[in-house]
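Bug #77: duplicate submission created two jobs. Keeping one. Sequence:
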Amino acid sequence: MYDKSDPRAALASKQGAAGPKTGLVAEPQEAYFYKDGPQIEDTNGKTWLLRGNNFVLAWSEANAGAQFSRSQQTDEYAVILPAAGAEIEWNGTTTQVPGWSVAFVPAGDSTVTLKDGGQVTRLFTTKATDLAEQCANARGYDVPRAHIPALEAWPDPVGGWKVRHYSLDVPQQDGRFGRIFRCTTMMVNVLDPFMGPRDSTKMSPHHHDDFEQCSLAIKGEFSHHLRWPWTTDMADWRDDMTVTMRSPSALVIPPPVVHTTRAVGSAENQLVDIFCPPRVDFSEKPGWVLNADDYPMPT
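Kept job's structure:
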């Protein structure tokens, strides 16, 4: 359910879908980076780790000169740089990535260096088991989410493997939703900021049948409103929930929970939505995925 001014109102809906199956109850996964202690604290700085069913989010407050290395990384990962730039070394080549960018790093050995320090988010699949086991909610997925399909990588990028990066300095455009970039494993949508609270008459309650949404707050404060659908089994029923979080923080919303988020901070409020693997419906909208020419959809 979207307000008519919301670009997502044009998304195709599934016709004749059955009601939600039973036994799908899962709790949201919450991480309050601004008040909880980090999972890793070393010479590189402080790192908080939160996992979803298919992904691991690493939020770091990096010291000057911090180096975040991956050895024999299994698959492609994403790097979000909200302010400070970074050097990314892969396969013997160093790529300079400016701040306010998103980058995608191929499998293998790589190092992300922040000469001046700053904030950085890295997004891995749960094949990075060493990171998944260090997450604050490492045991949150011991009960399998049977209704979420197994993770499958999307096709290889056009032109072969290399570090690719994209500026987030993209102006708003009527009919396009946020600033969406994808790779073989992730979709990152840096949403347009809200100045002050969101208009409460233009909310967007909706749900996803079989994939999670991770909402990363990078500025401001948000209230996430969650509603569990009723199934034929009362054991699935839950009271409505509102999770209010300042930034930086992250929330993983399980399917098929109905959800909508309201910016409530008095100044600038900005979210980054994360999906693993990329969303098909967003990818099918012409012009929505800004690097679609580099990363093709599955056939």
